[in-house]
Amino acid sequence: MNARILEIEDLTVSFDGFKALNNLNFSMDEGELRVIIGPNGAGKTTFLDVITGKVKPTIGQVRFKGRNLRSMSEHQIARFGVGRKFQTPRVYLNLTPRENLELACNRNKGVFSTLLGRSSVTERRTVSGLLETIGLVAKPDIQAGLLSHGEKQWLEIGMLVAQAPDLLLVDEPVAGLTDEETEQTGELLISLAQEHSIIVIEHDMEFVRQISRKVTVLHEGSVLYEGTIEEVQNDPRVIEVYLGQQQEEVHEAA
Ligand SMILES: Nc1ncnc2c1ncn2[C@@H]1O[C@H](COP(=O)(O)OP(=O)(O)OP(=O)(O)O)[C@@H](O)[C@H]1O
C-alpha cells in the first residue's frame, strides 16, 4: 500500500463565523490523481488555499508528507513540495516557452542571472524534456503570448513540474479549452501522475471521466461522497446537490 501524502483531519475554516470548510476529513496516497467536484461555494478553492497555507485552519489540521503544515508559511509549504496551478495561466507572455521553463528551472538561482547567463547543459536537457512532456517541442522559441489558451495552460503546468513538487494542485485546467485541448490536458495530467500526486478541481464531467480514478465530492464545506466516477454519477445525493443542477444548466443553455 502506498504511503499517505496528505491527511486532513476535522478541518474547519471560518470566515467571520461562516464555515467555508466544516469538519472536513480527507486523505490521499502518494501517486494518486484525485478529482474534486462540487457545486459553487462548496469550499473547493478554500480547500486548496488551506493546503498551500494561504488560509490557516480555524480548527483541525493538514498533514503533508507526515508534517503538520500549521506553522509553515505559504513559501515554506511550496518549497516543501506543494505546487499550485491557478485557473488563469501565469506565464511570461513576452518570453518564449523555453525561456519560461528555464526561469522555472532556475527559480532558486535568481531571475537575472538566468536571463543574462547561459543555461547549463543539464538545465537545457531538463527544459527540452519538459517541452516534450507538455507537447510544445514544435514551438519552443515563439512568444508565449502567441500560444493558444490550452498551450499556455500546459506551459504553466510545465513550469510547476520544473520545480519537482510532490503534490500538484490544479484548479479548473480545462475551462475555456477546445475539446481537443481538453483531451490533451487529460493525457498530460495522467502522464504526470506517474511521478507526482495530483489534485484536480474540475466542473467538466466529460474531462473528469477521462482522467479520474477516485472522485471526492464536496458540499457545504464537507466531503459528501467519495468513489469512482460511476459510483459518484449514480449517487442520489450527488445528483441532488450537484449533477442534477449541472444537467438543468445544460438544458437552459441549449
Ligand atoms: N475570504 C472569505 N471571506 C468570506 N467568505 C469566504 C471567503 N472565501 C470564501 N468564502 C465563502 O466560502 C464559501 C466557499 O467558497 P469557495 O470559493 O471555497 O467555494 P468553491 O467550491 O471554490 O466555489 P466555486 O466553484 O464557485 O469556485 C463560499 O460561500 C464563499 O463565499
UniProtKB/TrEMBL annotation:
UniProt entry keywords in alphabetical sequence: ATP-binding, Nucleotide-binding, Transport
Chain coiled-coil ranges: none
Protein transport keyword on record: no
PROSITE patterns: ABC_TRANSPORTER_2
UniProt domain ABC transporter: residue ranges: 6-245
InterPro entries: ABC_AA/LPS_Transport, ABC_transporter-like_ATP-bd, ABC_transptr_urea_ATP-bd_UrtD, BCA_ABC_TP_C, P-loop_NTPase
Assigned GO CC terms: plasma membrane
UniProt KW Iron keyword: no
One GO MF term: ATP binding
PANTHER family hit by this protein: CONSERVED COMPONENT OF ABC TRANSPORTER FOR NATURAL AMINO ACIDS-RELATED (PTHR45772), HIGH-AFFINITY BRANCHED-CHAIN AMINO ACID TRANSPORT ATP-BINDING PROTEIN (PTHR45772:SF8)
Protein name, per record: Urea ABC transporter ATP-binding protein UrtD
Organism: Tumidithrix elongata BACA0141
